[in-house]
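Page 37, continued from 36.
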């Protein structure tokens, strides 16, 4: 069964069958489209709340009055054992291809470019089987397949015929959110398999998902599912939010997640493409395609940071902090603590406060630290920065003992480079004064007198 929704019937779906053309004829589908197909994964069904949220978000898009959302509900085949579910998606994929072909025939469509298959976990590979069958049997090619953390077990390191890959549609985009080996409690595939692969927060574990309750080796499959669920499900939460995001939801091409965190990729150019993660990625990819800047036979891997709760979308800044090497800084000596910064724009809007490091760090005079940080979007690039120094003494760490000197740090400058706004500013403390423990310090560009 394929529950089908439009703006006219959001609550009570029309039920389509793969081989029943009369139902398609009587469903009053708008030939203008677009047509969205949403598929769940293992242990799930088409009744899940995330599918309802995603369907409504797609129908709510401006200009999508003609849209149709079709749920690929294969809950009868998604139950344990996992190996049987893997086998079942091949059949469901073929059935869905026949449904798409029948819609194409009944509505007398010129092509299926505006058919978009969105699949989570096993549902992503189901989309791959659907796309492959459409080409093989009907000489039709899906416009787009979005893989939301495609499942790894039985699919990782396999030939393209077995899994979703970029040959299955004109555009294949992937969001990896739980890409790590199963023995580390990972369900998602790690290798890049689409035209564009997004690796938010590195693509394996997501902020806000508890890591402390990791199941042991003897844990049941259900326990493992419960643990990885948060990371694995975050992919469809990101995609749903990306339809009407609170900020650009930008990701940037980089050699690796480590290189991205080190601040090696901050300028959007021909070596480092910037593409919004999720729903709107195809628009920008098309521009790159038209400009001859991308080869559709190769992959683009992109990285980004998100928040740990909704809204997940953040804006990225490369932050370079230099500890002053002045006489006063040297006399004061090295200092252990945490630097936190808040960005303020021209309208006095403030971002959230972010720490350069999760734990206290030992800062030496002359040291330069580079970090990639994600902030709430204030609406404009920053004009100045509020800097705070957090110091906590530890009985067991002599480096943190302060008997006479006040806990403080002499910062020479902080340089901020924005990916989204393509701006760069350098701010400094007024009259080279130190940042004192628990005393917010305003740093501005005009205070920089090198």
């Amino acid at each position: 069964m394929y529950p089908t929704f439009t703006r006219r019937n959001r609550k009570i779906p029309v039920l389509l069958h793969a081989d029943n053309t009369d139902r398609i004829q009587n469903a009053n589908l708008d030939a203008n489209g677009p047509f969205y197909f949403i598929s769940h994964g293992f242990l799930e069904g088409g009744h899940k709340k995330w599918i309802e949220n995603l369907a409504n978000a797609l129908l709510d898009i401006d200009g999508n009055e003609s849209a149709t959302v079709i749920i690929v509900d294969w809950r009868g085949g998604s139950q344990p054992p996992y190996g049987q579910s893997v086998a079942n998606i091949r059949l469901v994929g073929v059935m869905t291809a026949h449904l798409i072909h029948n819609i194409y025939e009944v509505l007398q469509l010129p092509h299926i470019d505006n058919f978009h298959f969105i699949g989570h976990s096993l549902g992503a590979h189901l989309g791959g089987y659907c796309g492959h069958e459409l080409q093989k049997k009907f000489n039709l090619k899906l416009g787009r397949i979005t893989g939301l953390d495609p499942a790894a077990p039985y699919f990782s390191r396999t030939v393209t015929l077995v899994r979703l890959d970029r040959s299955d549609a004109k555009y294949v985009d992937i969001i990896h959110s739980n890409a790590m080996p199963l023995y580390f409690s990972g369900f998602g595939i790690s290798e890049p398999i689409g035209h564009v692969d997004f690796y938010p927060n590195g693509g394996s574990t997501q902020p806000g998902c508890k890591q402390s309750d990791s199941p042991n080796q003897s844990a049941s499959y259900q326990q493992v599912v419960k643990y990885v669920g948060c990371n694995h499900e975050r992919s469809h939460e990101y995609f749903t939010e990306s339809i009407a995001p609170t900020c650009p939801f930008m990701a940037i091409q980089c050699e690796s997640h480590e290189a991205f965190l080190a601040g090696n990729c901050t300028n959007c150019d021909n070596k480092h493409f910037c593409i919004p993660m999720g729903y709107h990625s195809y628009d920008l990819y098309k521009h790159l395609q038209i400009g001859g800047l991308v080869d559709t036979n190769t992959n683009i891997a992109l990285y980004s940071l998100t928040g740990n709760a909704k809204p997940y979308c953040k804006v990225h800044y490369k932050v370079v902090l230099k500890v002053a090497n002045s006489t006063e800084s040297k006399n004061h000596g090295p200092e252990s603590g945490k630097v936190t910064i808040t960005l303020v724009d021209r309208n006095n809007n403030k971002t959230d406060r972010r720490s350069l490091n999760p734990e206290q760090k030992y800062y030496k005079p002359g040291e330069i630290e580079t970090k990639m940080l994600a902030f709430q979007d204030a609406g404009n690039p920053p004009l100045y920065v509020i800097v705070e120094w957090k110091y906590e003494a530890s009985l067991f760490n002599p480096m943190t003992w302060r008997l006479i000197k006040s806990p403080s740090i002499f910062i020479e400058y902080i340089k901020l480079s924005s990916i989204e706004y393509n701006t760069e500013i350098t701010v400094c403390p007024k009259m080279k004064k130190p940042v004192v423990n628990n005393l917010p310090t305003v740093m501005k560009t005009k205070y920089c007198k090198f």
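The chain has a mean pLDDT of 92. Flag for discussion at group meeting. The helical segments are 21-26, 49-59, 82-106, 122-138, 221-243, 257-261, 281-290, 327-332.
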